[in-house]
Design goal:
4 helices; 122 residues
């Protein structure tokens, strides 16, 4: 007779299996956001031109635009993982959870598009 025991090393593990990847992604995106914050603070504190032209000059540099874009895309992915986990943990209705996840995805995509528009208009 086969052992139907679901305890110990032979237990049946089920689930989405994305926990470690998303845990690591949140840590990496948090590091990118922290580094960007430090770079932005150093640029701000060492600069003398605290006007719109000064900020536009900072964001006019191609490397800074790309760094800012990568940071914001990381922020949006970081937010997606966090909000998705909230929906999955606290919303029991599958239909409502799907609607909330889709609304979150559309909102984050719109924010990403707006970010690109803002960064490349400088």
């Amino acid at each position: 007779m086969a052992n139907k025991n679901n305890i110990g090393p032979r237990r049946l593990v089920v689930g989405a299996h994305y926990g470690v990847k998303d845990w690591l992604a949140q840590r990496v995106t948090a590091i990118v956001m922290a580094v960007f914050t430090v770079v932005l603070l150093v640029s701000f504190l060492t600069g003398q031109n605290f006007t719109y032209e000064g900020w536009a000059g900072l964001f006019a540099r191609q490397w800074f635009k790309l760094f800012a874009l990568v940071t914001f895309l990381g922020l949006f992915y970081h937010a997606w993982v966090g909000i998705r986990d909230i929906w999955m943990d606290y919303i029991k209705s599958a239909g409502l959870r799907l609607i909330l996840m889709l609304a979150t995805i559309f909102w984050l995509i719109a924010c990403a598009a707006w970010t690109v528009q803002i960064l490349w208009s400088v």
